[in-house]
C-alpha cells in the first residue's frame, strides 16, 4: 500500500500501481502541492540560516586541538591579548581597560576543571567567569570582506555619470514579474540588486536615466506630437560667437564663475587655453576684452542673441493705503525687478543636455534587508517621495488634452530664496530667487558647479525714499509708520510673485506643454511646485503671517503658548489636526478696512479680523493663483535644518550651556578650560572637522558648519565641567541632540531609521523639557559678555541717533526659552521626510552655495544697478555653457571627479622615496618600547599574509626557522606618507578617507573577538610601509609586493556602557606597553575607514600605557598620552550609521555584528523598547551618576504643564506627574 504523504490527504494506492501511480496522483493533488511548496520554503530558509551562521562563526582554533592544551579545552577562546583583561587603574574616572570579548561559540563543555592562575572578569551583562592564563596571541581583527558590488548598483549620482546600461540577456528571468506585476495596473518592480534595493513603478516608465531598468522592460510611447512644438533657439558650435577658438577659450575661462586668481584658476587657464591644440597666439593680436564681451552679447548681425528664457526687467507697483475714506490708495512703483519667465526656464531645462539625467516617472524605492529578508520603504529623492507619487496620480486622474495621447510627466519645481550681502563691507546686497528641478538627483543639484541651479529672478527691496512717501501721509504715527513699511514690504514680495505666476505659467500648470525630451520622445510636461526653502523671515512673507505672532508656525495653527509641550502626544496631535488653511474672506475683509474704510494697517478692526492665526492683510498670490489648481502653499514650506537647527535650536542650547558655566563658581576659569579643550580637538577628514583655533565660547563669525562641528565634538568637551549630578544630564542631552541631528541629516532613510528618529525625538524633547525645569531653574544665568557688548553697542548707537547720553546697564538675566518656532519645528521632520524625501534634498544650504556665483560676479561689476549687471553675467555664463553643449563637450572645470574602482579597498603609493633600512632604523630608536619587537612582528605578519592564514591562527607561534625563511631584499622596506581607504557608504556611494600618521592616524577595524560586545577595534597608524618579500622554504621563491601598517592598539574601557541605549560615546584607551600586542602590524585591507578619536579631557594625560619620554608612537615633542579617548561616532553620517545596523550600503556581516553588539534584538527594530532600557535618558553609567530630577521613570503629563510655562517668555515652573505619552506614535505629516 502506498500513500500520498501530504497532510490531510487520505489517498491510498496499491503496491502494483508503483511509483507511476503515486506520481500521477501527486501531480493532481492540491494538498500535496501545497505541502511540497511550504516544505521547499522551509528548506530554503534552513539553508539560508545555516549559510549565514557558517559565515559568521569563526573556525576552530588550531590550538584547541593541540596536545599541550588538552587540559584547558573547556575554557572560552578569545582573540585579543589576555593581558587586556586585567583591570588597571587610570588617572581619572571610569578608566579601566577591558578586552570586550565574551564566550566563544564553543562546542566544548564549560564544565571542565579550570586550572589555577585565573583572572576574574566582570562582564557587562552582569555575570562573570574565570579566564585561564594562556600563551601569547597576536591581536588580529576579523577579516573584513566588504561586498564588491557591481557598477550598476553603486550610487553614481554624485558624479552625474550613469552606470553602463544593463544587458537584458544576462538578467535573471523576469517571468513572474511580467506575468503578474506588469499586467495589473501596468506596474513594474525591478529585481532586487546586490544591496537589496528594488524600484516599484506605479506605471511602467518609458525612460529611465540611470540604466537601472533594462530597455526591454521600458514602456512604449508615441514619439510624435499632435501639434507644432516650439524648437529651442539654435546655438552654433564654438568658436561662435567669436572669431576663433583662442578667444572663445579665453572668454570661457574668464566667465567660469570666479573672480580670484587661485592655483586652480591658473591651472585651468594653462590646460584649457594655452595648451589647447587650437590655441594660436596670432589670434590675440588686437584682442579686446570689451569687444569680445559685446560679441558674446550680440550676434554677427549686430542683434542680441535671444533666448526665450532671457532676462526681463519690469517695474512692480504696489498700493499704499492713505488712511482716508475719501482718498484712494496711492500707487507706488519700484523699478528694477529682473526675472526670467518660469515657463521658458522649464522649457529650456527640458531641452538642455542635463535633461538626459532627469527622472520623469516617480517610483517607490524598496529594500529587502539581507539579514532577515523583511522589506521596507526607502526615502531619499524627491522623485521617490509620496509628494511626487500623489501629484502623478492626481495628474493621471485629470482628463487628457483634446486630441493628445502623449505621456504626461511632471517637472518638479523646488524654489529657494534668500537675501545675501555681496561684499564684506558696504551695503550691497541681492535677493536672488533660484529654481531647481526635483527630476534631477539631489547629489547633482547640491553641487554649485553642476549647472543645475536656475537663477530666475532678483527680488527687489523697498527703496529708502519710500519713507518720504509714508511720512507725508496725514496722521501717521511712528508706530504706524513702521507697520505700514512692513505692510509695503509684504505687498512688494507678493506683487513680484504675481508677475512670476503669469497667465502662461497658469496655463501650462493646468494644461502642460509639449517638449521633445532627451530620449527624442515627445511628452507633455506639467510643472508642479513641491518645495520652497527659505529661512523663517521669508517663510512668514510667503505664508502671509506675522513674524513671531501668536501662531508663528507657517504650517500649523499651534499657538506659541503651547510650544512648551514639545514632543508630547498633545503637541503632535494638535499640529496635525490644525494645519493652516488660508482665510481668504477674512483677508479680503481686512483689506476692505484698510483700503476702503481708511483704517490703519495695525488698527483694531484689522487685528480683530486676522489675529486668530496671526494672518496679515496681504493677498497671498500662491493661494490666489495656484490654490484652485491644488497647491498647498503652507505644506511646501519645508523645514530648514541649517537655520532652524544649527543656527537656531543648537546655537540657543549651546549659548545657554555657556551661561550655565559662567554661573558656576569659578565660571570664568571653566570657560577658559572649555576653550582650551576645543583647541586640542584633532581635525578629521578633508574639512569635515576643522581646527578650532579661536575661543569657541566667543562664537566669533561662526557659520552653520562651525556650529555643526561644535555639536559633533561637544560631548567630551563639556564632560566634567559641571557638578556630577548636572554633568550626567548634560551629557545625555548632548548625546540625544547629536543623535537627532545625525538622523535628520541622513541622505537615505528607511522605515526603520524613521522609527528610530521618532523615538529619538521623543527622548530629546523629554530631555529638553527636563533641562529647562530641573537644571536651568537652579541657576541665575546672565547674558554672555558677547551678548552684553552687542546690546550696549546698540544702546550707544540709539543714543547717538537721538542725541541722548548713553546709558550703561548691567548684564541682563537670560532664561532658557523652549517656546520658539525653531524648537517647535523639530516635531515636523519625520513627516517632512516621509512626504518629500530626505532633508538634504531641500536644505537651504543648497541655495547658500548658489550665492557663491553671485558673489564671484559682483567684483566684476561697476557696483551700479547691481541686479542688472549680475543678470548680465549670469546670461553670459549660460550662453557659453550652451555653446559648449552644442559641441558636445563641457569645460574641464565642470567635469565630474574620477571614479574609483568599486573593488579597490585601499591605495598606497609604490614610490621608493623614503627607504627604511631596518637595522639602522632600530638603532636610531634604540630603547623605544614602540619598536621593541618590530622585526619579529614584521616577519610574523609576512608569514601570516603570505601563507594566507585566517583569524583562527591568531595564537599560532612561528619558529625561528620560519622567521629566517622570510627574505626582505637588503633588509629595506619603504615608507609612504599617506594611504587612501575606500569604502561604500550607507547610501551606496564610494568615498575614501586619507590616513596620515602625522595628522589623521586613527583607524577602525572589525573586532576579531568570537562574540564581541563592541563591533570594532581601533588603532593608531604609526607607519605605512610597502616592501618586496618572499619565503625561502626550499621551493621556487615567488617575490610578492606587500603593504603593511605599523599600529598602536587601543582597547575599550571596562565597565563603560555606550551607545544609544546609554546615551554615551564609546571610550577607548591605549593598550599598555607591557602587553605583547600593544603594537603590531595590520593588513591595510582590514581597515574599514578612518575614525575620529577625541581626547576624554576629564581623564587627563598620563604615562600609564607608555613610559614617559619621546617615542615613535607619540607625535613629535609629546612626552605622554591622553589616558582615554572618545570615539567620535557623530563625525559624519556614514560613521554614525556604522554604529547602527541600518546602513543599506554596509556589508551584511558588519551590520549583523553591530546589531548583536549594540542590543538590537528584533528583526527590523531600530531602538530598544522602554521595557528593555534601564535608564535611557538619564543614561549615566551608574545610578549614582544621575540627578534625582533627571530620572526617566517619570515625565510630565500633558495636563500637568503649568500655564506659566507655556507663555511667551521663559518660565521656571516645576513639572511633575507621570508620562501618558509613551504609547502614542508620532503622526505623519
Determine the structural class based on helices, strands and strand pairing.
Answer: alpha+beta
Poorly predicted ranges (pLDDT <50, ≥5 residues)?
55-137, 158-184, 223-228, 889-900, 1162-1229
Termini Cα gap: 66 Å
Q: Taking Cα atoms only, what radius of gyration do you get, to the nearest Å?
A: 34 Å
Q: Overall mean pLDDT score?
A: 80
Dominant shape: globular
Helix content: 25-40%
Q: Let me know the number of strands.
A: 35
With helices defined by DSSP (H or I, 4 residues minimum), what is the helix count?
A: 32
Strand percentage: 5-15%
Biggest pleated-sheet summary: 12 strands, antiparallel
List keywords for this structure.
single chain; about 1250 residues; alpha+beta; twelve-stranded antiparallel beta sheet; seven-stranded mixed beta sheet; 32 helices; about 15% strand; disordered C terminus
3D architecture notes:
This protein is of the alpha+beta class and 1229 residues long. The strands form eight sheets. Strands 3, 21, 22, 23, 26, 27, 28, 29, 30, 31, 32 and 35 form a twelve-stranded antiparallel beta sheet that branches. A hairpin with an 8-residue loop joins β1 (2-3) and β2. α18 (641-663) crosses α19 (667-679) and α18 (641-663) packs parallel to α20 (704-718). The longest helix is centred in the N-terminal third of the chain and has 27 residues, at 30-56. It is globular. Residues 55-137, 158-184, 223-228, 889-900 and 1162-1229 have low confidence and may be disordered.
Amino acid at each position: 500500500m502506498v500513500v500520498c504523504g501530504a497532510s490531510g490527504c487520505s489517498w491510498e494506492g496499491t503496491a502494483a500501481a508503483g511509483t507511476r501511480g503515486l506520481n500521477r496522483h501527486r501531480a493532481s493533488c492540491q494538498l500535496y502541492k501545497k505541502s511540497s511548496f511550504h516544505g521547499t520554503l522551509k528548506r530554503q530558509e534552513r539553508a539560508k540560516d545555516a549559510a549565514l551562521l557558517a559565515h559568521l562563526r569563526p573556525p576552530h582554533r588550531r590550538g584547541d586541538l593541540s596536545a599541550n592544551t588538552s587540559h584547558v579545552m573547556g575554557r572560552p577562546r578569545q582573540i585579543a591579548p589576555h593581558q587586556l583583561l586585567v583591570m588597571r587603574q587610570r588617572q581619572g574616572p571610569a578608566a579601566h581597560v577591558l578586552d570586550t570579548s565574551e564566550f566563544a561559540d564553543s562546542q566544548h563543555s564549560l564544565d571542565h576543571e579550570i586550572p589555577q592562575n585565573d583572572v576574574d572578569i566582570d562582564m557587562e551583562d552582569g555575570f562573570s567567569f574565570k579566564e585561564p592564563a594562556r600563551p601569547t596571541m597576536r591581536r588580529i581583527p576579523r577579516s573584513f570582506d566588504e561586498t564588491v558590488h557591481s557598477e550598476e548598483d553603486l550610487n553614481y549620482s554624485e558624479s552625474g555619470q550613469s552606470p553602463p546600461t544593463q544587458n537584458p540577456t544576462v538578467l535573471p528571468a523576469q517571468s513572474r514579474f511580467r506575468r503578474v506585476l506588469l499586467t495589473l495596473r501596468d506596474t513594474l518592480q525591478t529585481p532586487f540588486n546586490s544591496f537589496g534595493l528594488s524600484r516599484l513603478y506605479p506605471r511602467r516608465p518609458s525612460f529611465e536615466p540611470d540604466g537601472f531598468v533594462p530597455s526591454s522592460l521600458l514602456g512604449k510611447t508615441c514619439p510624435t506630437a499632435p501639434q507644432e512644438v516650439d524648437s529651442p533657439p539654435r546655438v552654433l558650435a564654438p568658436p561662435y560667437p567669436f572669431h576663433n577658438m583662442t578667444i572663445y577659450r579665453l572668454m570661457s575661462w574668464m566667465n567660469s564663475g570666479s573672480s580670484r586668481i587661485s592655483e586652480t584658476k591658473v591651472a585651468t587657464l594653462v590646460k584649457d587655453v594655452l595648451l589647447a591644440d587650437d590655441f594660436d597666439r596670432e589670434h590675440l593680436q588686437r584682442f579686446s576684452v570689451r569687444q569680445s564681451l559685446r560679441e558674446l552679447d550680440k550676434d554677427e548681425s549686430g542683434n542680441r542673441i535671444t533666448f526665450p528664457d532671457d532676462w526681463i526687467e519690469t517695474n512692480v507697483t504696489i498700493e499704499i493705503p492713505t488712511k482716508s475714506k475719501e482718498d484712494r490708495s496711492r500707487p507706488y512703483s519700484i523699478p528694477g525687478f529682473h526675472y526670467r519667465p518660469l515657463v521658458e526656464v522649464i522649457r529650456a531645462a527640458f531641452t538642455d543636455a542635463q535633461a538626459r539625467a532627469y527622472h520623469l516617472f516617480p517610483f517607490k524605492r524598496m529594500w529587502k534587508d539581507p539579514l532577515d529578508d523583511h522589506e521596507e520603504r526607502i526615502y531619499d529623492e524627491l522623485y521617490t517621495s509620496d509628494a511626487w507619487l500623489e501629484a502623478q496620480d492626481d495628474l493621471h486622474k485629470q482628463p487628457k488634452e483634446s486630441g493628445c495621447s502623449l505621456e504626461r510627466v511632471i517637472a518638479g519645481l523646488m524654489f529657494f530664496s534668500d537675501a545675501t550681502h555681496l561684499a564684506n563691507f558696504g551695503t550691497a546686497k541681492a535677493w536672488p530667487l533660484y529654481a531647481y528641478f526635483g527630476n534631477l538627483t539631489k547629489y547633482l543639484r547640491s553641487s554649485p558647479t553642476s549647472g543645475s541651479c536656475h537663477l530666475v529672478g532678483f527680488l527687489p527691496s523697498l527703496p529708502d525714499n519710500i519713507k518720504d512717501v509714508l511720512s507725508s501721509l496725514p496722521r501717521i504715527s511712528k508706530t504706524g509708520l513702521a507697520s505700514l513699511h512692513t505692510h509695503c514690504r509684504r505687498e512688494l514680495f507678493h506683487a513680484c510673485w504675481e508677475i512670476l505666476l503669469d497667465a502662461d505659467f497658469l496655463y501650462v500648470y493646468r494644461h502642460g506643454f509639449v517638449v521633445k525630451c532627451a530620449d527624442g520622445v515627445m511628452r507633455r510636461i506639467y510643472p508642479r511646485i513641491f518645495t520652497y526653502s527659505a529661512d523663517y523671515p521669508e517663510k512668514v512673507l510667503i505664508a502671509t503671517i506675522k513674524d513671531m505672532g501668536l501662531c508663528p508656525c507657517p504650517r500649523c495653527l499651534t499657538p506659541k503658548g503651547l510650544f512648551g509641550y514639545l514632543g508630547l502626544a498633545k503637541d503632535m496631535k494638535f499640529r496635525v489636526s490644525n494645519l493652516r488653511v488660508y482665510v481668504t474672506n477674512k483677508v479680503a475683509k481686512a483689506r476692505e478696512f484698510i483700503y476702503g474704510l481708511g483704517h490703519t494697517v495695525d488698527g483694531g478692526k484689522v487685528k480683530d479680523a486676522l489675529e486668530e492665526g496671526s494672518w496679515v492683510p496681504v493677498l497671498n498670490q500662491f493661494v490666489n493663483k495656484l490654490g484652485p489648481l491644488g497647491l498647498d502653499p503652507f505644506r511646501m514650506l519645508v523645514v530648514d535644518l541649517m537655520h532652524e537647527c544649527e543656527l537656531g535650536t543648537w546655537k540657543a542650547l549651546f549659548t545657554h550651556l555657556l551661561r550655565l558655566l559662567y554661573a558656576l563658581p569659578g565660571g570664568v576659569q571653566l570657560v577658559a578650560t572649555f576653550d582650551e579643550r576645543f583647541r586640542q580637538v584633532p581635525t578629521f577628514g578633508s574639512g569635515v572637522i576643522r581646527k578650532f583655533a579661536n575661543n569657541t565660547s566667543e562664537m566669533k563669525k561662526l557659520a552653520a558648519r562651525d556650529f555643526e562641528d561644535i555639536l559633533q565634538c561637544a560631548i567630551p568637551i563639556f564632560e566634567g565641567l559641571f557638578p556630577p549630578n548636572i554633568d550626567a544630564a548634560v551629557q545625555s542631552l548632548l548625546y540625544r541632540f547629536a543623535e537627532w541631528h545625525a538622523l535628520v541629516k541622513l541622505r537615505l532613510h528607511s522605515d526603520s531609521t524613521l522609527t528610530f528618529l521618532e523615538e529619538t525625538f521623543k527622548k530629546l524633547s523629554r530631555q529638553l523639557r527636563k533641562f529647562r525645569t530641573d537644571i536651568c531653574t537652579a541657576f541665575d544665568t546672565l547674558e554672555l559678555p558677547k551678548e552684553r557688548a552687542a546690546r550696549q553697542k546698540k544702546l550707544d548707537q540709539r543714543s547717538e541717533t537721538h542725541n541722548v547720553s548713553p546709558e550703561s546697564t548691567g548684564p541682563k538675566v537670560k532664561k532658557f526659552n523652549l517656546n520658539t518656532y525653531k524648537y517647535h519645528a523639530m516635531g515636523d521632520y519625520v513627516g517632512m521626510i516621509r512626504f518629500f524625501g530626505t532633508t538634504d534634498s531641500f536644505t537651504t544650504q543648497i541655495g547658500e552655495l548658489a550665492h557663491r556665483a553671485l558673489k564671484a560676479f559682483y567684483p566684476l561689476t561697476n557696483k551700479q544697478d547691481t541686479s542688472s549687471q549680475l543678470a548680465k553675467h549670469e546670461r553670459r555664463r549660460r550662453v557659453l555653457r550652451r555653446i559648449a553643449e552644442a559641441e558636445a563637450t563641457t569645460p574641464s572645470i565642470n567635469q565630474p571627479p574620477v571614479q574609483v574602482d568599486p573593488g579597490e579597498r585601499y591605495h598606497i603609493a609604490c614610490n621608493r622615496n623614503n627607504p627604511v633600512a631596518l637595522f639602522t632604523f632600530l638603532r636610531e630608536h634604540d630603547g623605544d618600547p614602540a619598536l621593541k619587537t618590530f622585526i619579529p612582528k614584521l616577519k610574523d605578519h609576512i608569514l601570516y599574509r603570505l601563507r594566507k592564514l585566517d583569524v583562527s591562527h591568531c595564537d599560532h607561534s612561528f619558529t625561528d626557522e620560519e622567521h629566517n625563511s622570510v627574505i626582505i631584499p637588503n633588509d629595506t622596506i619603504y615608507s609612504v606618507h599617506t594611504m587612501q581607504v575606500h569604502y561604500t557608504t550607507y547610501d551606496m556611494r564610494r568615498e575614501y578617507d586619507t590616513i596620515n600618521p602625522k595628522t589623521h592616524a586613527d583607524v577602525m577595524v572589525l573586532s576579531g573577538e568570537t562574540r564581541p560586545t563592541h563591533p570594532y577595534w581601533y588603532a593608531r597608524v604609526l607607519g605605512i610601509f610597502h616592501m618586496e618579500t618572499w619565503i625561502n622554504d626550499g621551493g621556487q621563491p615567488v617575490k610578492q609586493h606587500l603593504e603593511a601598517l605599523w599600529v598602536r592598539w587601543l582597547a575599550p574601557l571596562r565597565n563603560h556602557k555606550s551607545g544609544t541605549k546609554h546615551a554615551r560615546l564609546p571610550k577607548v584607551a591605549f593598550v599598555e606597553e607591557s602587553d605583547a600586542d600593544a603594537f603590531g602590524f595590520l593588513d591595510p585591507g582590514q581597515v574599514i575607514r578612518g575614525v575620529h578619536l577625541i581626547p576624554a579631557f576629564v581623564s587627563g594625560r598620563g604615562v600609564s600605557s607608555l613610559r614617559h619620554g619621546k617615542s615613535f608612537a607619540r607625535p613629535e615633542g609629546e612626552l605622554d598620552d591622553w589616558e582615554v579617548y572618545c570615539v567620535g561616532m557623530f563625525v559624519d553620517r556614514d560613521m554614525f550609521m556604522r554604529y547602527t545596523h541600518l546602513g543599506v550600503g554596509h556589508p551584511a556581516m558588519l551590520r549583523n555584528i553591530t546589531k548583536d553588539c549594540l542590543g538590537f534584538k528584533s528583526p527590523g527594530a531600530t531602538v530598544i523598547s522602554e521595557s528593555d532600557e534601564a535608564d535611557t535618558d538619564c543614561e549615566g553609567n551608574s545610578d549614582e551618576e544621575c540627578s534625582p530630577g533627571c530620572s526617566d521613570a517619570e515625565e510630565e503629563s500633558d495636563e500637568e504643564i503649568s500655564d506659566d510655562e507655556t507663555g511667551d517668555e521663559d518660565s521656571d515652573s516645576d513639572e511633575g506627574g507621570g508620562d501618558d505619552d509613551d504609547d502614542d506614535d508620532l503622526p505623519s505629516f
